[in-house]
Amino acid sequence: MNNHWLQGLNPAQREAVTYGAGPLLVVAGAGTGKTRTLACRVAHLIRNGTTPERILLLTFTRRAAAEMIRRAEELAACDATGRVWGGTFHATANRLLRHYGQAIDLPTDFTVIDEADAADLMNLIRNERGLGDRGRRFPRKQTLAAIYSRTVSAGDKLDAVLKRQFTWCLHEFDAIAEIFVEYTRRKREANVLDYDDLLLAWRTLCESAGAGETVAGRFDHVLVDEYQDTNRVQSDILRALRRSNRNIMVVGDDAQSIYSFRAATIRNILDFPDQFPGTHIVKLEENYRSTQTILDAANSVMAPARERFTKSLWSSRPSRHKASLVTCLDEAEQCRIVCERLLRHLERGVPLMRQAVLFRAGHHSDQLEVELARRKIPFHKFGGLKFIEAAHIKDMIAILRILENPGDEISWFRVLLLLPGIGAKTAGRIMGELGVRGGGDGGAPPAKENGERHRRPRAASVTTPLKRMIDAPPRPPADARRAFEDLRATLKDCSTQPAPPIVSQIERICEFYRPLFEARYDNHPMRLRDLEQLEQIAGRYRSRGSFITDLTLDPPTSTSELAGAPYLDEDWLTLSTIHSAKGCEWQVVHILHVADGMIPSDMALVDDEGAEEERRLLYVAMTRAKDDLYLYFPLRYYHRKHAAGDAHSYAQLSRFLTPDVRRHLHEQGAVIEALATGPRAGSIRAMDEKTNRQWMPDAN
DNA sequence: CATTTATAAATTTTT
DNA sequence: TTTATAAATG
């Protein structure tokens, strides 16, 4: 047989690609050709007789799966697209549960809610119970959602999680537990699954007696990428999934685990050989990406960390020069220097496509984005706030979700609150009358039954809240009549039989939503474009249900903020959070804000583990670079709270850039150069020069 | 009494 | 820019 897909693989990669049956753990350092190895293995399996449909490839993003399958298909010279099962754990769970959900009594027409929706439901329950009142310091809705998610994903007890991660909430243990019980009940009633439910239900399905075997039996081979960033539930799923055969390959790097906030645990990768006895381990240590000097710098950052799978990454790429540490006066100078560097590399023939600017938190690039726009440098931003999280998009989707799943309490509530004259109380009453379950029982004051108006449904089994809304709507308060009637007409127009095309539904909803939205937001022209974009995306879908699900499971990640006219057509720069940069590489990488408080983030420093993860984060960022790496350190940060003032504080260089690390860096920057050539900052001469400037007329 | 408006405060990373 | 609380309004 022609083994051409094995050409150009090194011995370790080849071993991983051609390994036979049984558990295989591939420890793959940064840039060691992990994607290629996975793609080749898929190709190898197919060429050796495995049916594509019987391969399951689990990756961190849908994009990564699509890319790998495309490459495998190319290598194996076959059509594997849409045949190999590929995607995220969550997307795969969704697919399987739609199929086999009945086996665990799960209605298969559930809708999926994101974390913000989950938080809203938590909030609803909290307010019903009056738990946030009386000035008690009670966790906010997002905190509640975070605690919940962490608890179920890690499979820990609530009190353990609170003790370890949320100590300040410990005194509210009972109330929190109560909210969580009710939260689960309400999700089931509304027939919605949150992100964690998808995994939990998949695990339940896999572990169930009959259907579990069927699901496991569907796949001859399971391959998992980024295994260091999976959680307990996910590893349970894998174990249950491999009950009929033990063909499983996991690939990961414990030095790159950066998702512990999502309850990912490196125990999964470390304990894999114990969970799957007889595991064969292959280490990929030759780095094809970076120059040796960049690797030296990155390795020195990791040196103090205790890495369990010891690897020694090496590169045969010649090292032209060291990575740079650029000290800047302040953030404005950082922006300026980044832009200059970008353009200098561009002039020397490195297109923007091969350059990236990375940062810890989404808002760290705010100033730079303004500067890029000013200079008309086009860019796409990945990570940070997403399209789907904008309030006006959520409003639109909520209406679609009501149409799709009339029991969806969260969406009803959100939509009713949009109507002027309707607040939380009225919305609750209307929902009660529509028969949307929720606040009905469980210790909460029952929704007021305004006796004469409350309709008792004759045929509750066929009447949904949506039908009731259309045929026998509750009476809204007088000042909300008009808007309420509008909503009713909209819902009616969108739910005719046969259902209108999804784009027409969105158009119709927009018509209803437009006036409300213009009254609500002052920057509506900008937001209006988002609505148009939503409509555009919807055009690619035939089913409303899959549109909504895809939007929550795989939301558009890049805000294509095309700064100005595309001067340098088709070429654009990548701005990305470090998390979203995982698995990517660029010729030139710029890392912003390498200062204590940013990397490591202050928020992460509650415990040692958090600090270590920040270290890995910096490591991940640095190892994205192939040829040139710049770390930027602004000395001063202005406090923007008092908008006018120039109050500022001085930053500390990131604690990870120890003297040992700095030996591998070339230090430069205006400040350094000024110090080298001009008078020392602390000298008498410098003082006099500064004073002398006071006699001079102001340049501005 | 419920809703709207005003004011103050806080703000990581993502499926 | 969003979110919780307090005051004002209908």
Summarize the helices and strands and which ones pair or pack:
Blueprint: H1 11-18, E1 24-28, H2 34-47, E2 55-58, H3 62-76, E3 85-87, H4 89-100, E4 111-113, H5 115-128, H6 141-154, H7 158-165, H8 173-190, E5 192-194, H9 195-207, H10 210-217, E6 221-224, H11 232-241, E7 248-252, H12 267-275, E8 280-284, E9 286-287, H13 292-302, E10 314-315, E11 323-330, H14 331-347, E12 355-359, H15 366-374, E13 379-382, H16 391-404, H17 409-418, H18 424-434, H19 465-471, H20 481-494, H21 502-520, H22 524-538, H23 544-553, E14 558-559, E15 573-577, E16 586-591, H24 608-622, E17 625-638, E18 648-650, H25 659-662, E19 665-668, H26 670-677, H27 684-693
Parallel strand pairs: 1-7, 1-8, 2-3, 2-6, 4-5, 6-7, 9-10, 11-17, 11-19, 12-15, 12-16, 13-15, 16-17
Antiparallel strand pairs: 13-14, 17-18
Helix pairs in contact: 1-2, 2-3, 4-9, 5-6, 5-8, 9-10, 9-11, 13-24, 14-15, 16-17, 16-21, 17-18, 20-21, 21-22
The chain binds a DNA duplex (15 and 10 nucleotides) through residues 60-61, 88-91, 114-115, 132, 135, 140-141, 195-196, 198-199, 258-259, 261-262, 360-363, 383-386, 391, 420-426, 477, 479, 552-555, 577-580, 601-604, 613, 617.
